[in-house]
Amino acid sequence: MPLALVSAVAPPGMAPPTTGQRPRGPPRDATPAAPAASLARLRAVREAFPDAWLGIDNNFAAHSLDEAIAFGRRLDELGDIGWFEDIVPPGDARMVREIRDGIATPVAMGDEQGGSYHPQALLAFDAVDINRVDATTNGGITRLRPIVATIRE
């Protein structure tokens, strides 16, 4: 199966149409693409790779609940999007749940959230369809085991 990755951000100094690879490291200084540009990229990748799994990392670009749901509904119109990831900055699991309730595309979050509380907030609000975890933000492999066990419960 072909693999197609789409980023909602472009590396600094590169216009979105010329971007061929995701920048190395977290795109902390990257500028989020306009929603229309992200949707155009998703459509182009879907046309080029009709059988590929396709998801989108929003890189916390949504600034409000309404903005996140509006973009999520546009993703819904595309159909067959694997997940809408990192929609809003971590810390408000209730808002993430409201976004999940407002769209059909699966919501994925969690790998940017760490600490001993993770993933309790996302689980308590049943906020995500896919709970992502990252060993580097959650205490390494030793801490990851009980987190995964909690998610599976």
Structure description:
By secondary structure, this protein is of the alpha/beta class. Helix content is 37%, strand content 8%. It is built from 5 helices and 6 strands. The strands form 2 sheets. A 4-stranded parallel sheet has the order 3-4-5-6, with helices on one face. Strands 1-2 form a two-stranded antiparallel sheet. Helix 4 (120-124) links the parallel strand 5 and strand 6 (130-131). Helix 2 (65-78) packs parallel to helix 3. The longest helix has 14 residues, at 35-48. The radius of gyration is 16 Å and the shape is globular. The N and C termini lie far apart (32 Å).
Brief digest:
The chain is α/β, with parallel strands linked by helices and 153 residues long. Helix content is 37%, strand content 8%.
Write the layout of secondary structure elements.
Layout: E1 9-10, E2 31-32, H1 35-48, E3 56-57, H2 65-78, E4 84-85, H3 93-102, E5 107-109, H4 120-124, E6 130-131, H5 140-152
Parallel strand pairs: 3-4, 4-5, 5-6
Antiparallel strand pairs: 1-2
Helix pairs in contact: 1-2, 2-3
Q: Unreliable stretches, pLDDT < 50, 5 or more residues?
A: 1-29
Structural class: alpha/beta
Helix content range of the residues, please? 25-40%
Mean pLDDT across all amino acids: 78
From the alpha carbons, calculate the radius of gyration and give it in angstroms. Answer: 16 Å
Shape type: globular
How far the N terminus sits from the C terminus, by CA atoms, comes to 32 Å
In DSSP terms, counting alpha (H) and pi (I) runs of 4 or more, how many helices?
Answer: 5
